[in-house]
Amino acid sequence: MINQRSLFFNVDWILILIYLCLCVIGWFNIHAAVYDPLYPGIMDMNTNYGKQLIFIISAVILGAIILLLDSKFFSTFSPVFYGITLLLLIAVLIVGRNVGGNQAWIPIGSFRLQPSEFAKFSTCLLLAHYISSTNLKMHEFKMIGTCVLILLIPTSLIMLQPDTGSALTFTALIFALYREGLSGYVLVIGTILIALFILALVINKFILIGIIICVTILVVMLSRESRKYIQPIAVSVVVSIAFIFCVNFAYQNILQSHQRNRIDVILGKLDDPRGQGYNLNQSKIAIGSGGLWGKGYLQGTQTKYDFVPEQSTDFIFCTVGEEWGFAGSLVVIALYLTMLLRIVNIAERQRSSFSRIYGYGVASILFFHFFINIGMTIGLVPVIGIPLPFLSYGGSSLWSFTILLFILLKLDSNRMGVI
């Protein structure tokens, strides 16, 4: 057995240092994003930047408590954590407060708890617990079906809020399943479906179907080998056509109008810089205006005059780009990439399959948030409203990401023991 007192010496302090750097960078940029001349002090508790300091301090304390717990605690009680978050996701649909069209927060005094944030680490824990405790292989239907069910339940509850951005986060966990043996064909099929989804929105569905049929016939005629697989090819074509019709139906009847408009802006089908494209347009102006070195701390005009909506939460990266420029943005991106690579390295060195699976779950969720959040501020992906880990304002977000990361740090500190 490893001496519990020595566990702190086994903690990956480089990863903790990166975590603290991102938290501090986020704090200063929240100060710049919502700066109020009446309350200029960065520690003023009347402001969001003052409250963020409380969130950071409490998050660090929470992380320290996690490091003091027994590693077996997280595996043993993973079903309990999962069950609690499901109850909270149901509760928010009943007693939650509607903010910006989403009923995603439970009011607790002056604080608002967002259960969907905590569902991320609890789902990772249960997924790791189930896969590591069963003798089934990842290619078996029962294994895949159970994993999909574990992901689908919280996703469905979050979609009812509706919070599409948070719900989509759970799809990133497919990379953790792939590491554990899920067929690469699943990723290939997923990529094809994404491509078909985009094409179905850009091209008339009947023209797209005609192109698919013509290409299929051409491939069959030119390739002798393909003729042996006429039946699966025919099935693939039928499924593709059905998927195209489903995309059009979902786009017109399930997605809300503002969600359709955001997608149309990204795809170039809608040019509305003063309306639906306003957020993205102002975001790109703010980031672009920062130049190489930025305008300087508290000198961002786009930020100071509230041109960019949700500056301290979803669009916090705009403040980084405007005030710290390309150089500052590069530093932030480098910190995230270093964190992600280190997490993957930590996951790979685990002796316990539970710890390895959980580690890849952490990497998948953080990568999704990092890529989507920054991508939506520069126009690479639609604006779906998810926070940038450790930088965006909010207690629920910071605490959930802290729990997510520090559980991995705890598991890693005890990797030579038995979990």
TrEMBL record:
Q: Which UniProt keywords apply?
A: Cell membrane, Cell shape, Cell wall biogenesis/degradation, Glycosyltransferase, Membrane, Peptidoglycan synthesis, Transferase, Transmembrane, Transmembrane helix
A family per Pfam: FTSW_RODA_SPOVE
What Gene Ontology terms describe what this protein does at the molecular function level?
A: glycosyltransferase activity; lipid-linked peptidoglycan transporter activity
**Keyword Magnesium on entry:** no
CC terms in the record's Gene Ontology section: cell division site; plasma membrane
Q: What is its main location?
A: membrane
Q: Give TM regions.
A: 7-29, 49-69, 76-95, 141-160, 181-200, 206-222, 229-251, 324-345, 357-384, 390-409
Give any single GO term for biological process.
cell wall organization
List where in the cell it is found: Membrane
| Classification via InterPro entries | Cell_cycle_FtsW-rel_CS, FtsW/RodA, RodA/MrdB
Q: Does the keyword Cell membrane apply?
A: yes
PROSITE patterns documented for this protein: FTSW_RODA_SPOVE
- Identify its membrane topology class: Multi-pass membrane protein
NCBIfam families referenced in this protein's UniProt entry, alphabetically: rodA_shape, RodA_shape
* Protein name as catalogued: Cell wall polymerase
Taxonomic source organism: Arcticibacter pallidicorallinus
